Amino acid sequence: MNRILRALTVVLLFEMGVLLLYLPWSAFWEENYFLNYLPWLLPVVLHPSVRGIVSGVGVLDILVAFGLFASRPAAARVPPA
User: pLDDT at residue 61 above 80?
Assistant: First the structure.
């Protein structure tokens, strides 16, 4: 993978992970556009288990970003002539 593409992927995964880790516990989660128009979804989205699952996905994104940052790409293999 290209170095620039790899760096952008790591940054994107890390930012998404931080956002998913923080967002379910903020006030924005409780007062958003979709919950105003879909009130039947309110008890599901505000349940602590759903918030925990979304935060868990954020933690996984952060771990994947660190894994991509720490790993080195394998050298390209050239088949013997």
Answer: yes
Helix axes of 3-22 and 48-70: crossing angle, nearest 10 degrees: 160
| Tens digits of residue pLDDT in 12-49 | 999 999 999 999 999 888 888 888 888 898 899 999 99
For the chain, give the secondary structure using H, E and C.
Answer: CCHHHHHHHHHHHHHHHHHHHHHHHCHHHHCCHHHHHCHHHHHHHCCHHHHHHHHHHHHHHHHHHHHHHHCCCCCCCCCCC
